[in-house]
Write a structure and sequence with these properties.
Keywords: Signal
Structural class: mainly beta
Number of strands: 40
InterPro entries: SbsA_Ig
Helix content: under 10%
CATH superfamily of the largest domain: Immunoglobulins
Distance between the termini: 97 Å
Protein name: SbsA Ig-like domain-containing protein
Length: 582
């Protein structure tokens, strides 16, 4: 019996040992298969991965091995690596990617061609385990012969709307003769400064284009992908030479209309409108509420956007929407930021008998950036203003004088509009407006900056290298787009005046074909883009004129540098002059 017990104990011990071994082996296997993760704790990791060593070294000649290795300073996300390794030029060389801790191993599955410069390229979308991207692409150049080609091409890509740079924009480079239906010979991605670099190129004739390569297959699919040419259709690269394509402003037009996706009735007159994206509306915007046969039953008016989700806005109808009745909605004068009109994609919705219990309260006002001397103060409320206390409790302080019977105000549905008494606000006086907030049972105090004529400034634009006598179109706006100016001229200078002391952005282009819009060019057939530039962060000071020079990149030379230079102002007796070249 004791022997049996001993055997049982030994058997149980063996089972325990085997279980521990099984768990240990499972953990080891799991660790070997999973992407390593950096230890947690400490400050957040904001730095992207960097290559600290390659085998072989960059610039190696007479290379004959079947693999190369990249060692990073931290663990990388393996999926991002697999999707962002390429071999240039495009020789259809199959390869396999493996990992050993922080090292990426690229193994070639067939022999490399003789006497050829090969570039193994790591794209900027490679990330570490915290999803931090590389700051720029990394190229490892090798030659299977005695000579390493060292020609280079540089380009810069900027956003046509903002003038800002974005990493990851793709430039395709083709050797002549070009076949745009095939794969590009070389592809470069922009870094955080918007610069794309091609290196280790052989001499020859080339052509470059920017492509919105949606599916990342290095092929321009002209039917579905946007592309733009550079100013030069093609160029000749000398042996070990350098060529600068200059700056290309790219425009990706938004042609997708916003969709009204849902209507919710919060009460018999209050609607909650949900859209596919944020929309804006004109002062005369309406929502036509119709029955299922298309006959208009009433009209609703937009009130304000939901703060936590600007794709949602609220509206109120003139008449109740009857319970049990079905309705459709037709928006008028609603657009997205690109000007696409709001479309409807919903089933008919049913009315409601719920009374409107929404509290009346102020939501916003239009004086965050100040008011012009003749501009009215407008306060937007949460619903149609149906309480006389709003008008009865209005107080206006003009300097030291208080008015409890200000004569020039009106209520326009949900907007309280307060206007100056004598067409303009009094110069040199401070104003305070106290409007009633029924929700809080107290006055809301508004102290706007009112820009008098002597406080407004101006910008004088000096255009350096435009074609004479052809129209120039200048668009100027502040950062919030509350002030916008659009003008056409033909001289080399123009002054935009009556501007509040804010920061502005200017877009300038030359309308060569005089069609009133900027044409970004055509790849095939080739048509170069019209001259274009963007100037950011132009300051205007009270009572001064800022002199700003603007020039078109690529007009005089293809070698263009557009550093961000802060505007420096030099005060004069009647003018504040700044020089800021694009």
């Amino acid at each position: 019996m004791n022997t049996d017990r001993q055997a049982g104990k030994m058997s149980g011990t063996k089972r325990g040992i085997l279980s521990i071994l099984f768990v240990f082996i499972s953990v080891i296997i799991g660790l070997s298969c999973a992407t390593p993760v950096a230890p947690t704790g400490g400050p957040p990791d904001r730095e992207g991965p960097e290559v600290i060593e390659t085998i072989p070294e960059n610039g190696t000649t007479n290379f004959s091995d079947d693999e190369v290795r990249f060692t990073f300073d931290q663990f990388v996300d393996r999926s991002s690596v697999r999707q962002n390794v390429s071999i240039e030029p495009d020789l259809a060389i199959p390869f396999e990617i493996n990992f050993r801790r922080k090292t990426v191993i690229v193994s070639f599955e067939r022999e490399l061609p003789e006497n050829t410069t090969i570039i193994i390229k790591l794209g900027v979308d490679i990330t570490d385990t915290q999803r931090n991207k590389m700051t720029g692409s990394f190229d490892l150049a090798l030659s299977t012969g005695d000579i390493l080609d060292e020609g280079s091409v540089t380009a810069r890509i900027l956003d046509a709307e903002t003038g800002s740079a974005e990493s990851g924009q793709r430039v395709f480079l083709y050797r002549e003769p070009v076949d745009f239906s095939g794969r590009a010979n070389y592809v470069a991605q922009t870094d955080t400064a918007g610069t794309a670099n091609f290196g280790y190129l052989s001499e020859g004739e080339y052509r470059a284009i920017w492509v919105d390569d949606v599916n990342r297959n290095r092929t321009w699919e002209s039917g579905r992908e946007l592309a733009q040419p550079f100013t030069e259709e093609r160029f000749e690269l000398e042996r070990n030479g350098e060529f600068d394509l200059g700056t290309l402003f790219v425009s990706i037009p938004d042609t997708v209309a916003p969709i009204l996706e849902g209507v919710g009735l919060l009460s018999e007159r209050r609607l909650r409108i949900r859209n596919s994206e944020e929309v804006d509306w004109s002062p005369n915007a309406t929502l036509s509420i119709q029955d299922t046969l298309g006959k208009e039953q009433t009209t609703a008016f937009p009130l304000y956007k939901q703060e936590s989700d600007p794709t949602v806005f609220f509206a109120e109808s003139d008449d109740p929407l009857q319970e049990g009745e079905f309705y459709t909605v037709e928006p008028n004068q609603f657009t997205d930021v690109s000007g696409n009109s709001l479309q409807v994609d919903i089933d008919p919705f049913v009315g409601s008998s719920e009374p409107d219990t929404t509290g009346l309260r102020p939501i916003s006002h239009n004086s965050q950036n100040g008011l012009f001397p003749d501009e009215s103060l407008e306060i937007t409320y949460s619903k149609f203003i149906d309480d006389d206390v709003i008008s009865d409790s209005l107080l206006v302080f003009e300097g030291d004088q208080m008015f409890d019977d200000w004569p020039t105000f009106e209520i326009d549905r949900h907007i309280l509009r307060i206007s100056p008494q004598d067409e303009t606000w009094e110069s040199g006086l401070r104003y305070e407006f106290r409007v009633w907030d029924p929700w809080e049972s107290e006055h809301l105090r508004i102290n706007p900056e009112i820009w008098q004529r002597n406080q407004l400034g101006s910008i004088e634009f000096i255009i350096e290298n435009a074609e004479a006598d052809l129209p120039l179109i200048l668009q100027v706006h502040d950062m919030d787009r509350s002030i916008e100016v659009d003008t056409t001229f033909t001289d080399s200078t123009i002054e935009i005046d009556n501007l509040p002391p804010l920061e502005y952005r200017a877009i300038l282009f030359q309308d060569l074909n005089e069609n009133g819009r900027w044409d970004s060019g055509s790849v095939d057939p080739f048509q170069k883009p019209e001259p274009y530039t963007v100037q950011r962060s132009i300051p205007v000071r009270e009572g001064f004129t800022s002199e700003t020079q603007m020039s078109f990149p690529n007009r005089d030379t293809l070698s263009v540098d557009l550093p961000e230079i802060p505007v420096e102002e030099i005060e004069k007796s009647d003018q504040d002059t700044t020089n800021n070249d694009s």
